[in-house]
């Protein structure tokens, strides 16, 4: 049961349900009360994933072990660590730069490769290697994430480990305790990284999250830690609701009453095709409408909602399910668990953003399929 709840597609339904429930709490004066028809729209999206879960990924994948699989993480951790080291030597590490991550892109194209390899090292070691290898991969990933001031890389690595553990081992009280302890440590590190980024940017103030989140009396009452969790999960849902409403009311025109974005765009280039390819095709980045410009997460569905409304969101969900099935078939049998874990990890974060079209994460699927082909040929 635990596996199904945190793996694709049920995990998308769980995350959206949690976001919807939290958005029903009135803890910020930035946001209006959610209406019944808006709840219905989000519930329909949740229903699509619940129905999909009845047919795909119904059982925990069977892991196959071999010495070659246990060593699979090594080239990836080497490429990631060496590549980032060269990049930091040439451009400096964001944590030590006065501008932080602003305008930092690293080595063109290769930055994406280094990022993907670091993530793949964590994935393969978590599923196929020893605890020592996993610890090495996670520590390396976290060090690179800290130097890059990348909370996203840190959270993706952690999510991969959690889903891999549930996939690989039987769940017991000891494992649950260790997982909760690790989660607490990651949340603390996440907050520290966020504070460092804001201090570098020069806009850090006391009670930062209370101020930027527009906390009302009820929001202040729950404390900064809980308010941070609420705001981080609920604000993307508020933005999704706004984009659905703006499409219904304004179509391809802009809603000047909010922090409006691109207002209209190409569905395929903005929602489906990886952004690295879209850029080469000359497409401009699509910006969603936002209730507040500085709270700019909008779930993975806001772009589809702004371009085609609720039908666009349903279509996106359908295409994603199709992509899962195609990718599963294309991946060699021994690495299918890795494909499922990686897909499930990215889908967990759909409550925040569409990571599937980010170049560094899409390239991860390419690496999994290539690694499967190479391993298959060696075994033959």
Layout of secondary structure:
Layout: H1 2-6, H2 10-23, H3 36-52, H4 67-70, H5 73-91, H6 110-128, H7 131-148, H8 151-168, H9 173-201, H10 208-212, H11 217-221, H12 224-250, H13 267-272, H14 275-280, H15 302-330, H16 336-348, H17 359-379
What report would you give on this structure?
By secondary structure, the chain is mostly helical. The protein has one domain (2-379). It is built from 17 helices and no strands. The protein has helices spanning 2-6, 10-23, 36-52, 67-70, 73-91, 110-128, 131-148, 151-168, 173-201, 208-212, 217-221, 224-250, 267-272, 275-280, 302-330, 336-348, 359-379.
Task: For the structure shown, list the relevant keywords.
single chain; 380 residues; globular
Q: How far is the N terminus from the C terminus?
A: 36 Å
Task: Return the structural class.
Answer: mainly alpha
How much beta, percentage-wise? under 5%
Shape: globular
* Number of E-state strands: 0
What is the typical, i.e. mean, pLDDT?
89
Order of helices and strands: HHHHHHHHHHHHHHHHH
Contiguous low-pLDDT stretches (5 residues minimum) are: none
| Major beta-sheet overview | none
**Residue share in helix:** 55-70%
**Overall number of structural domains:** 1
Total helical segments: 17
Radius of gyration, Cα only, in angstroms?
21 Å
